[in-house]
Amino acid sequence: MLRGFYTAASGMITQQRQQEALSNNIANANTPGYKADQTSIRAFPEMLLSEMGSSKNIPTSQGGLNLPVQNTIGSINTGVYVQETVPNFKQGDTRETGISTDLAIVNGMLPDETGSLFFTVQNDAGETRFTRNGNFTVDGQGFLVTNHGYYVLDEAGNPIQTNGMEFRLTPEGILQTEEQATPLGITYTTDANTLTKEGNDLFAGETEPIPAGTTYAIQQGFLEQSNVNTLQTMTDMMTAYRMFETNQRVLRAYDESLGKTVSEIGRIG
């Protein structure tokens, strides 16, 4: 009985974590470049149940011999858990904003199915991070920054000086002003799932130079939208809630059975 109690409890915890991930996706449905989180649910190892202690009488010349036997009953599942949460790096739709500092990476031909392109930025600690959110602006010193104030980096890993908001960006990612032309720091990873998702639309991990044969375009005045499917996410949230309720009812039934065991059977004894 206690095993079933813990199995139902693990199901409730799993659906709660699933609901948290889905709620976070809904909250970021309008965040540019946001990549929806997906949960991977796995079952704990199954156990094989056997009946122990029974015996079998084998006739012998001295009368008979009782030997212990083990009868296999079957397997039992011990519950489920959330193994990991990974982002879905599918390209989001682009939306025209008409704002010159809004930039969007439009994937073309990528050499790897799991590969992805990113803007390179610098966080508050001076560390290099990556983002798909091109909702940029220009700070008081004329540097191109993210909407959280992080410097957008060029190809050499330096902050980009725009000398104001008047600049033009080529589809190849060259930021052009009256004084200079600066290549944006666009980087590539063969497997985006190896990156770690941080707050403020940032990813951490190892990337590499863009491989030969990769095609993409940078659109100025556009933003990549979140790839969250709101209708599907709402449906998944309702499913998770119903599953949580089901496990809750099972848990309540086990609790009532344990209560009867303690009060009624104990009183009879």
TrEMBL record:
Ranges where the Flagellar hook protein FlgE/F/G-like D1 domain occurs: 115-159
Flagellar basal-body/hook protein C-terminal domain residues: 219-262
Primary location recorded for the protein, binned into one broad class: other
Localization (cell): Bacterial flagellum basal body
One Pfam family cited in the UniProt record for this chain: LlgE_F_G_D1
Domain Flagellar basal body rod protein N-terminal: start-end pairs: 5-35
Keywords of this entry: Bacterial flagellum, Cell projection, Cilium, Flagellum
NCBIfam families noted in UniProt: FlgEFG_subfam (TIGR03506)
Family classification: Belongs to the flagella basal body rod proteins family.
Protein name in UniProt: Flagellar hook-basal body protein
Organism: Oceanobacillus longus
